[in-house]
Amino acid sequence: MNDRILIAGTHSGCGKTTVTCALLQALKDRGLALQSFKCGPDYIDPMFHREVIGVPARNLDPFFSTPEQLRRQMGAAAGKLCVAEGVMGYYDGIGSEGRCSTWSVARATETPVILVVNVRGMYTSAGAVLRGFRDFRPDSGIRGVIFNNAPPMLQGDLRQIARDAGLTPLGILPGSEAAAIGSRHLGLITAGEIDDIRQRLAELGALAEKYLDIDGILALAAEASSLPRTEPAAPVVKHVRIAVARDEAFCFLYEENLQLLRELGCELTFFSPLRDEKLPEHIGGLYLPGGYPELHLEALRRSPIRRAIRQAVWAGLPTVAECGGFLYLHDTLDGAEMAGVLHAAAQTTKKLQTFGYVNLTAKRDNLLCRAGESVRAHEFHYCTSTDNGVDCRAEKPSGRRGWDCVHASDTLWAGFPHLYWPSSPAFAERFVRKAADDVAL
């Protein structure tokens, strides 16, 4: 069974995240086995699905994965109902042609699409929107529609508007302050907030059960064709322990990265730079992912583990540090003392510094690759550094902009870019082999 649907939106802010969360909660309340996906390089929505709704979540990113890889990633969830959430507007992607868009994911995976349309301030004109999205590409894949922020009294009329546009009406979601999920909730970091949002999700799930055509959505999902399954990577080492930072400050982790490390022969041991006093024992490598270190400066400054990390990295422990992990390795972040591995100062700004996909090319041999080899990555950060590194060259996919970045040596890879290792498994393999060699020494 490869039942699946994709929830897409007309634009960012139309309510596709709210609709997706409402639907997931309602389906979970029905006792169905679920797997959620998020299109694009998003950490927060999958984390939200896992930690709050309790549904396993993965990413589907056409910049990092080929169409066949996307198909196999969804195929690996055979036996579960897959609910994928799009990113931005349905056709929005790289450049005016919309490369790497939600539409490209739907087309590659042959997943039926449900379009979310926010009808606040709109009525009959919704028909024009539906026809435009349905016909913009001859193979749009759009099969149904959910109307967000719709008054229940108009449900019958909206149903007819959808049918007139050649799409299946699958219900409405009325506006509800009690169930509203804002962007702040998607960065949940405290137990108190989680308790509050779970109450909101219960309300959302009830609204979905009442106003969405759940049976119609399930029927549409069942029309999806079968998909191939991903074969696990072959181990490259018998066993090595990798310490992975994972807490409120370091939480931007692709589950696919962790899965690949395990398949290659790693035992992952998680620790908290916020609370632990020392690194886990008998480790061959260290992984410091991104997150929110700027929100936990005092706790990070007080923790004695930062000195242990500095000594371990300086002693040659193979280490990968991405974005927030990279900031943590600085001497200071917003004036607070950090690990002090890199003699540089980082500062949080109010402006988004770098955003989007990049192609990285190594300028020297290093822990993950050889000079001249390339890997795809993405950046999203508000921080600046007095030393971004110069060992890689980053270029936007358009080729219109480039810059030097990343500190790379035989034992260290540290910089703002986030890596998606399944797109370049050879990089992960080198890290794992080096970690195993380090333990052997």
Architecture overview:
The chain is an alpha/beta fold and 441 residues long. It contains 13 helices and 24 strands. Strands 3-2-4-1-5-6-7 form a seven-stranded parallel beta sheet, with helices on both faces. Helix 2 links the parallel strand 2 and strand 3. Helix 1 packs across helix 7 and helix 3 crosses helix 4. The chain is elongated and about 70 Å long. The model has no long low-confidence stretch (mean pLDDT 93).
Number of strands: 24
Mean pLDDT: 93
The number of helical segments is 13
Main β-sheet description: 7 strands, parallel
The low-pLDDT segments are none
Strand order of the largest sheet: 3-2-4-1-5-6-7
The percent range for strand residues is 25-35%
Radius of gyration, Cα only, in angstroms?
23 Å
What is the SS-derived class?
alpha/beta
Distance between the termini: 47 Å
Secondary-structure blueprint of this entry?
Blueprint: E1 4-9, H1 16-29, E2 34-39, H2 44-53, E3 57-60, H3 67-75, E4 81-85, H4 102-109, E5 113-118, H5 126-136, E6 142-148, H6 155-164, E7 168-173, H7 191-211, H8 214-222, E8 240-245, E9 250-252, H9 255-263, E10 266-271, E11 285-288, E12 290-291, H10 297-302, H11 305-314, E13 319-322, H12 324-328, E14 330-333, E15 336-337, E16 342-348, E17 354-362, E18 374-381, E19 383-385, E20 392-395, E21 402-405, E22 407-408, E23 412-415, E24 418-419, H13 425-440
Parallel strand pairs: 1-4, 1-5, 2-3, 2-4, 5-6, 6-7, 8-10, 8-11, 11-13, 13-23, 14-16
Antiparallel strand pairs: 9-12, 14-15, 16-19, 17-18, 17-20, 18-24, 20-21, 22-23
